[in-house]
Amino acid sequence: MSEALAEEVWRPKTNKWIITLSVMIATFVDTLNSSIANVALKYIAGSYSISDDESLWIITMFLIACSILLPATDWCSKVFGRKKFFLFCIALFAGASFLCGIAPNFEIMILGRILQGLGGGCLLPISQAIIFESFPPEEQGKGVAVFGVGILLAPIIGPILGGWLTTNLSWNWVFFISVPVSILSFFMVMAFIEDPPYMKAQGMLPFDTLGFLLLIVWISSFQVMVDNGQKNGWFDSAYICKLGIVSLISFIVLIWWELKNKKPLFDLRIFKNFQFTVGQAMIALAMGIVFASVAILPRFLQSLMGYDAYLSGLASGPMGVGSMSGIALSGILSDKIDPKKLVFTGVILVFIACMMFAGLNLTIAIPNVILPNILIGMGSTFIIIPSTTITFVKVSNEDMTNASSLQNLTKNVLSAIGTSSVGVFVSSYSQIHQTYLVDRLTLLNNNFSERISFLVSSFMQTGMDRMTAEIAANSMIYKQLIQQSMLSAYISTYKTYALLVLIVIPLLILLSKGKAEDG
Description:
The chain is mostly helical. The protein has helices spanning 2-8, 16-32, 41-48, 52-55, 57-68, 73-80, 82-102, 106-121, 123-134, 140-168, 173-176, 178-192, 209-228, 238-260, 274-304, 309-314, 317-333, 339-357, 366-392, 400-438, 446-460, 466-501, 504-510. 76% of the residues lie in helices and 0% in strands. α5 runs antiparallel to α13, α15 packs across α20 (400-438) and α20 runs antiparallel to α22. It starts with a helix and ends in a 9-residue tail after the last helix.
């Protein structure tokens, strides 16, 4: 009894802020790699003489590898000791980053990205567990706020930093930049992190091999499906349908096996904790919308406004300003205001920002996207950081690593769906708006007839014969039709995200306050 009580109140000897900085650096560099290579894909494809579609595997394999080891984090931490396993993951990530930078061919690059994902995937749940153990319940909001810098800023900074490095140095530096940061994190973790009594090495434990294989099949098929669905027409493609069937069956069997198995790969009983389950749903939904927001604006600016990769990535910069402001305010207000009020405020800010983006037009300039970007960055921070504190308030220290692993696995899945949803929504809405507009392009519409007549006359004055002028006029109208339908599609997509973020509110009502309860 006394031993259990000692473990319950265990706190590390090192200053909690030094611990936070140590694990935050590792998490930041890992999360950065989920987006930093995106803008360099065309340059990498040119170096290896591969197609743009083939270069997407550089992203896909990293994301798959990141998710595979997540549920096994708790098992690995108990077998090897959490600190040793953490150091191993950082070292593997650093070595793999260097391998990616010097990769002589595409096959070695893919191998490096897989190793990078395997090493980096476990850093976030371990770091998160360490943060919650290092702070007393009343100060966890501040710890999570500072730690949130790595989680929230890295995906935003990634495209900007990647574009600058690729333009001014070479694409290799997109990977080399992670090496010195990882080395710094390695030595800080070695010096300042210690294992709690319940996370010291326990030797070889039973391993759920079948569950692990089912997890690999599910994650791989699901990630490949969402990454390739748009370009293959989703379920109009037999290839995507097969992936969807494999993903669904393997997921159902995985859940059944993990619930049946007495020594599961990950303990799903944590979902009996209502607070954890609802809080995780809120965080996953918010992360999906954040990743979608990061992806949709550069796509709009590149496809309709003619921006290059660097400028379109730079346009997301104000989101980082909003995130930093949100992190600072969350840390200050976490102990003074009910976290649920902060989450509600965040939902309203994201809703307003999405509705502001729904006012997009083809004459928009960079200054027009600054305010809504700041609001999305601040709002998403207000949702995610307090929600994380609320979610884990009723999770015991012994269950922390398992709970954090499952939370981050869910977050990865929703982030993949969120990023993929941009292509799905834009494509679907574009077809709907195009059909709607085409119905009005008839000679019975006086405005259309007058526009065609004006264009034909204008082209004929340049020396064209009437038939050529009519073809040119109709071609111009068609280009405008495509452009306007795409613009309307982006507007509708932002409105959809505005409505989706409101789902957080009813979930929020179901949660208790994010304060530790007595007894």
